[in-house]
Amino acid sequence: MMKRALFLTVLLLAGCAAPKGEFSHRKTQLFLHDAKLEKESSGNPVIDFERQRLDFGTVSAADRTAREGHYLNFWWRAPHNASGLTARLEYRQQATGARVHVQEIAIPESRRRTVETRFKVIGAAYQKNGRIIAWRAQLLRNGAVVAETRSFLWE
Length: 155
Fold this sequence. Notes:
Distance between the termini: 45 Å
Order of helices and strands: HEHHEEEEHEE
CATH topology: Immunoglobulin-like
Helix content: 10-25%
Structural class: alpha+beta
Shape: globular
Strand content: 35-45%
Number of strands: 7
Radius of gyration: 19 Å
Strand order of the largest sheet: 4-3-6-7
Mean pLDDT: 84
Low-confidence stretches: 1-20
Number of domains: 1
Largest sheet: 4 strands, antiparallel
CATH class: Mainly Beta
């Protein structure tokens, strides 16, 4: 009986994994950096370090304001030497309502299976339009969507 349960568990877990050579979303990291919303210290050294890293090299208040906003990092699983890849971020902001903003990043051919993409909505775009309220990230290969992740509020 124990062997049968173990076999079924392994079979279920294997069914959940993406097949080798397939595209998939692996991880998302979202970070909002805004001095008006932050306390002096969060009490978490990792968050405090991230804030300091983003502000490194700023001299004036204008420099710090230009770096305030959303930082969105996405990690994707892709086959070795995949080419023709583009990462697309679609998002909505507070002040623009239903209008969808789009950023795209062309991804060079990589020998690694994990591909990282970094998007920023900072500076004037953040100061004028406000926080991101919903987003969707897609990995495209030659224009076709091969992997996707989205926020809860995205339609």
